[in-house]
Amino acid sequence: MSDERTAIVIGAGIGGLTAALALRRIGMTVCVYERAPDLRRAGAGLSLAPNAIQALRALDLDMEVRRLGTEVEFAEIRSWRGACLQRLPVGELGRRYGGPMLCVARPELLGLLANTLGQEHIRFDYECTGFTQDDSGVTARFAGSAVERADLLIGADGIHSVIRCHLLDDGRPRYAGYTAWRGMAEVGPELAPPGLAFEAWGHGARFGLWRIDSARVYWWATSNAPEGALGEPGDHLQRLRELFHDWSAPIPAVVEATPSAAILQNDIYDREPASRWGEGRVTLLGDAAHPMTPDLGQGACQAIEDAVILAASLARSTDLPAALRAYETARRARTDRIVKRARHFGRIAQWENPLACVIRGLTVRMTPRRVAERQFAWLARFEVPVAENWLACREL
Q: Is a pLDDT exceeding 90 seen at residue 49?
């Protein structure tokens, strides 16, 4: 049944590659089309919560991914002066919900996904410009007049998705009000102990740190700023020095340990949750469907969940449009809620008013641990009924 079904995936990011792997696992013929000339090796680190590890387990990739990074046992929210406001045993909690909390280098995760899929299933230098569909299939159009046809089309082409624009035409993403820098540095355990991650809050600025492996850490920083006020790459290090020179250790030392050329800066965006993700034989996935601010660390995690649940829906139905609508229904409530919570969390964490920041710190410090653990559990638990369906589908 499924051996003859074909799919086009637009975008060779984490969501697109995971979707292609999941669809191949249920017998579909899949090709990924990426506008870049090669696999995008740029990027710093990213966190993978237990829900992502559980989803990857359905693809037998969880152990491979775990070898890419270091597990986090404790996560802290700190003041910019270093006082601990909240500490969660995320390692213990993660194991309770089926997987560790992990930090990996994004380029290495992309490489693992691409190599597992097989480079022959990825076509580079294919910029999708639109699509048409009919009762029997979808035709994707690419710059240079190339066209490709398949039974399904999955738009996994990010926050500025061409596929979303053609489906929904819902305008530009919403600027969150702050910009972010990301980088990786070689930092010893005396500055960044293994197993401990933290996020420090200041007045309109934040700094986070996760260990990737014994030699490297991943860090990120934010600052309230007008949209589009991006510095030149050579200026990033100096700007970070100005922002964080008097913050608590190890933040200034981590900034200094990072090569200037390795620092990335991006303004932060999201979108209002959409009432629909697809039409007919076309659907969206990952940031194309539900772009969110990085404040809960769930962007990549939700794209990975999307991929597995998409495959589970398609594995159980010969009616492909109906299967796509079932996937969207299964995903929208959860992702809508995470988009809104990430936005809310980020807005509070970026407060500038000194009195408001004092109240924020006291509130975080006084929040009962059970409340924080309950919030973590909701994010970290993969949707079990769908996961069970997926495990059953793998036997088909």
A: yes
What pLDDT, on a 0 to 100 scale, did the predictor assign at position 382?
A: 84
pLDDT at 388: 47
For the whole model, what pTM was predicted? 0.94
CATH class in words for 2-173+270-393: alpha beta
For residue 42, the model assigns a pLDDT of 66
Give whole-number Cα distances, 90 to 75, 95, 278, 296, 339, in Å: 6, 8, 35, 13, 21
Rounded to whole angstroms, the Cα distance separating 78 from 85 reads 5
Domains of the chain, by residue range, sit at: 2-173+270-393
